[in-house]
Amino acid sequence: MSSATRHEQRSAESQERLILAAQALILRQGYCATTVDQICNEAGLTKGSFFHHYANKDAIGHAAIDAWGAMGTRLYSAAWNDAAKDPLAQVDHMLDIMISFTKGDEPCACVIGMMSQELAQSHPELAVLCAKHLDDWTQHVARLLNEAKKIHKPVKPFDSQRVGWFLNSIWQGSMLLGKVRQKPQTIVDNLEQARAYLAALFTTTATSGITRATAAKKPRKKTVKP
Amino acid sequence: MSSATRHEQRSAESQERLILAAQALILRQGYCATTVDQICNEAGLTKGSFFHHYANKDAIGHAAIDAWGAMGTRLYSAAWNDAAKDPLAQVDHMLDIMISFTKGDEPCACVIGMMSQELAQSHPELAVLCAKHLDDWTQHVARLLNEAKKIHKPVKPFDSQRVGWFLNSIWQGSMLLGKVRQKPQTIVDNLEQARAYLAALFTTTATSGITRATAAKKPRKKTVKP
DNA sequence: ATTTACATACCAACCGGTACGTATGTCATC
DNA sequence: GATGACATACGTACCGGTTGGTATGTAAAT
Fold first, then answer.
1. Contact, A106 vs A178, CB < 8 A?
2. Which end of chain B is less packed: N or C, by CB atoms within 10 Å?
3. Per-residue pLDDT at A204
4. Centroid of chain to Cα A75
5. Of all helices (H) and strands (E), which one includes residue A155?
6. Closest of A128, A115, A218, A97 to residue A172, by C-alpha
7. Å from B96 (CA) to D12 (C1')?
8. Which CA distances in Å does B44 have to A101, B14, B52?
9. What is the largest CA-CA distance in chain B?
10. Cβ-Cβ contacts under 8 Å for A88 (sequence gap 6 or more)
11. B 96-135 residues with CB below 8 A of A?
12. Which H or E run includes A164?
C-alpha cells in the first residue's frame, strides 16, 4: 500500500489534480471549450507538467472519462452490491443515489454524457470509451431487473436491457434539461416518474404512485453526497 | 409574396445557406468545435459575407437555434394541429413523427439539445433561448395531455407539465445515447416505452403493451421524412 | 431611357490573440 | 550521477473578427 516512492506519490497527486480540474471545466463548458491552459491553471500546475503526464489533450479527456466512470461505480456501489436486498429495492436505492447526486452544489451533470454529445462523431476513440462506460451502467441496471424477474412476476414480459437503456436515457436527458432550465427539480421529477415506470413493470397495484406527492411522502434514506 | 427585391432574395438565400451549414456542422461536432471558416466553406461563401449578415459567431448560433425550433414546429404540426382527433391519438401521432425522424440519413440529433448541453453555463444568452424552445415543445405535450384528461379518466392524477418534461428528457437522452452507441434503434425502443408509459397514465388495461413486440405489431402510419 | 448617386452583397487579405504542443532548463529524489 | 517531476519560454497554426475594395442591383433625377 505505502510502497509508493515520493516521486510516484507526487506524480499521482498531480495527475489527480489535473483530472479533477479537467472534469470540472468540462462539466462547466464542454470539452472543446476547455483549454489545457485552463486545466493547468485550475490544477495549479504548468503546461510543462501537463504534457509530462499526458501526451496530448485527448489523453486527459480519456483519463477524465475513465475517472468519472470509476467515480460512478463507487457512487452506486452501495446499491449494486447489496445482494441481500430485493433487487427492486436495489433499484430504488440506486434511484435514491441518483436523486441525492442532484443535490450537489454545482449543477448536476455528467462528464461522460457531455463528452458523448460533443465527440460522438468527431472523436471516435473517446466516443467508444464513453459508450463503454454507458453500457456498463446499463448492464448493472439490466442485471438487477433480471434478478427481480426471478422473484417478482412481471406484468408483461420485457427486455431488461431495453429498460436499462430507457433509464439511462432518462438520466442523461434529465441532467441536460435540468441544466439548461437551471431547475434541478426537473431531474428529481423525472427520476420519480422513472421509479413509477419501473415499479409498474412488476405490479399492477396502485402502491407505486405516479404522482410525486405519494412517492415523496415516505422519506428515503440519504446515501451519498458527491 | 414576390415583392422581394433581388438583393433581398439573394440575402435571404445566403443567410439560409449559412444557417443550414451551421446546423449541419453543429450537429456533427458541436458549437465550439465549428469555426466560422468551416461554416463559410460549407455554405460556399466567404468570411466577409458571413460577417455582413451576422455580427459574430454567436449570432449565427442564435439563428441556428431559432431555425431549428421553427423546423420542429413544422415537423410536429401535423400532430399538434389535428384538433379533430382524440388528444391521445395526437400524442401517438407525435411519437410516430419522432420515430420517423430517427430514420434519417445522418444520425438523429438535435441542434437545441446539443447547444443546451454545451452552452448551458458558458453562454447564458443562447442557453435561455434553447430553454425557451424546449419549453415550447413541452407545453405542446402538456396541452395535449390536459385535453386528454377531459376525455379519458387518468388512473391517477398527474401533472401534465411534469410528464411533458419527462417525455422531453427521454427524447433528448435517447438521441444522445443513440448517437454515441451508433444504434438509432435505441431511440425507437425508448420512444415505444415512453408510449407505453403515457398510455398507462389513462388506462389500467393491458391494451397498451409494454413489450415492443405488441406495440410494433400494429403498423402505424408513416408521417414525415425530414 | 440614361445617367447619376447610392446601397447592398460579397470578396481577399490581413490582424491580434490564443491554443496546442515543444524545447530546454532546474531541482529534488532515487 | 541518473532519473523523474516540474517550470519557463517559445513556435506554429489557426480562429474570430476587421478592413478596404468591387460588382451588382436599386432608385431618383434628368
1. no
2. N
3. 57
4. 8
5. none
6. A115
7. 52
8. 47, 9, 15
9. 63
10. A144, A148, A151, A152, A198, A199, A202
11. 107, 113-114, 116-122, 127, 130-131, 134-135
12. helix A160-181
| Cβ A121 to strand C below 7 Å | no
Residue B50 reports pLDDT greater than 80: yes
Q: Which amino acid is at B164?
A: G
Cα distances from A164 to residues B32, B156, B178, in angstroms, run: 32, 25, 14
Provide the grid cell at A141.
441496471
pLDDT reported for residue A221? 42
Q: Which long-range contacts (CB under 8 A, 24 or more apart) does B130-133 make?
A: B130/A180, B130/B65, B131/A180, B131/A181, B131/A182, B133/B65, B133/B66, B133/B68, B133/B69, B133/B72
Cell 379519458 -> residue = B152
Per residue in B5-23, pLDDT tens?
A: 888 888 999 999 999 999 9
In the prediction, which pLDDT does B223 show?
A: 40
> How does pLDDT run across B204-219, given as a tens digit for each residue?
554 444 433 333 334 4
Name the helix (H) or strand (E) containing B104.
Answer: none
Lowest-confidence segment of A200-204, B55-59, B136-140 by average pLDDT: A200-204
Counted residue by residue, chain A has a size of 226
Is A212 within 7 A of strand D by CB distance?
Answer: no
Residue A37 grid coordinates: 491552459
Burial label, A125 (beta-carbon count in 10 A; 0-12, 13-18, 19+): exposed
C-alpha cell at A192: 420519480
Among residues B49, B42, B13, which one has the least CA distance to residue B28?
Answer: B42
pLDDT along chain A (226 residues), means of 10: 73 95 98 97 96 97 98 98 94 98 94 98 98 98 97 96 98 98 98 97 59 39 39
Domains of chain B and any CATH numbers: 1-54 (1.10.10.60), 69-217 (1.10.357.10)
Q: Compare all CA atoms of chain A with the CA of B166 and give the residue at the minimum distance.
A: A190
The DSSP call for residue B215 is H
The answer to whether the beta carbons of residues B209 and B196 sit under 8 Å apart is yes
* Å between CA of A75 and C1' of D27: 71
Is residue A192 a contact partner of residue A169, using CB atoms and an 8 Å limit?
Answer: no
Residue B81 has pLDDT above 60, yes or no: yes
Instruction: Kindly state the cell numbers that stand for B51.
Output: 460577417
